[in-house]
Amino acid sequence: LEKFQATFLGELRSERARDECFGAVFRRFAPFFKMTATYAEAYGAWSRRAASDGNNRGSPVKDVMLVLARQAFDERCKGRDLAQFLVAPVQRVPRYRLLLEALVLRTNEDHADRNDLDEALTLVRDACAKIDAILGEHAVRNEMQLLKSQIHDPANQLSSLVAHRLVRTGDARKLSTSKIETLTFWLTDRALFSCDRPPATNMYRLRFYAPLTRCVVEAAPFATLSNRCDRAASEQLELAAAEDPRLARIQDALRAERAGTRCLVVRSPRKSFYVELASEDEARGWLDDVAAHQKTPP
Fold first, then answer.
1. Distances (CA, A) of 134 to 98, 224, 290
2. What sign results for the dihedral spanned by CA atoms 10, 12, 15, 20?
3. I want to staple 81 with a disulfide (CB 3.0 to 4.6 A). Which of 72, 91, 132, 280 is the partner?
């Protein structure tokens, strides 16, 4: 990659010294800009390793990071650390795209260089799109890697979390007859899980985990203790409504009212429980997101 960039920049300087028609040079080299995407993949893998192991005591990655951090004080580095040097090749291609866009904007359509510039710009935009997709994927993986490092998971249920995509997160109250506690829930494109945070610690503690393929989330109008007291009366009303049209209309009204509940029930083969969200809209949002990702698995 370094030799390619040196050759490319040398060709640009030579062209500038002749007639300043850069289109042919860009068109000739633009198809090879896609190899920067391969470098971007390697850069993303390194950044994830640095994020996951860079702070672990005794990790060889941490030792390397400390040595490289000290090298940033070398005057030849001009205050830049290793990460800034490593990302530089990836940043060049978007800058080439900006340069080509400016050249196309300032070049007449009948100019001898215009066709080459247009073709080169298309190729460079394709390369940028591929690089952006790779970097976006690495950003998601880094986010999930960081989350995983903050959760105490002795059973290693979150072993595949880095491959997940975060859909939504938020706090909810877990309801039970013995106590009510606030937990943080995460929904990814593959699973639903929750944690609490014990006092005097910065780590979460995993309390519940279930793949979406083995999890059911439904509205729970009788989840609160006061509504659960009305369960028997509601069941009797349903039986009577089957025979009396007037009672049927009342039953329909009650069903419409209960449809707006902010309580949900979460069921899995290992555990089931009720949760209460802050609002009906938030509860509906969780229901919709779970349903959407159960229908379209990754």
1. 20, 45, 26
2. negative
3. 72
CA 86 – CA 48 distance, rounded (Å): 13
Lookup: tokens for 291? 């349903």
Q: Rounded to whole angstroms, how far apart are CA atoms 26 and 220? A: 61
Query: How far is the C-alpha of 119 from the C-alpha of 26, rounded, in Å?
Result: 9
The strand ranges marked E within 144-248 are 151-152, 166-175, 181-188, 191-196, 204-211, 216-219
Q: Are 266 and 275 in contact (CB under 8 A)?
A: yes
Q: pLDDT, tens digit, for every residue of 264-277? A: 989 999 888 989 88
Q: Is the pLDDT of residue 205 over 90?
A: yes
Mean pLDDT of the chain: 80
**Can you tell me the distance from the alpha carbon of 179 to that of 185, in angstroms, rounded to the nearest whole number?**
18
Distance CA 243, CA 157 (A): 51
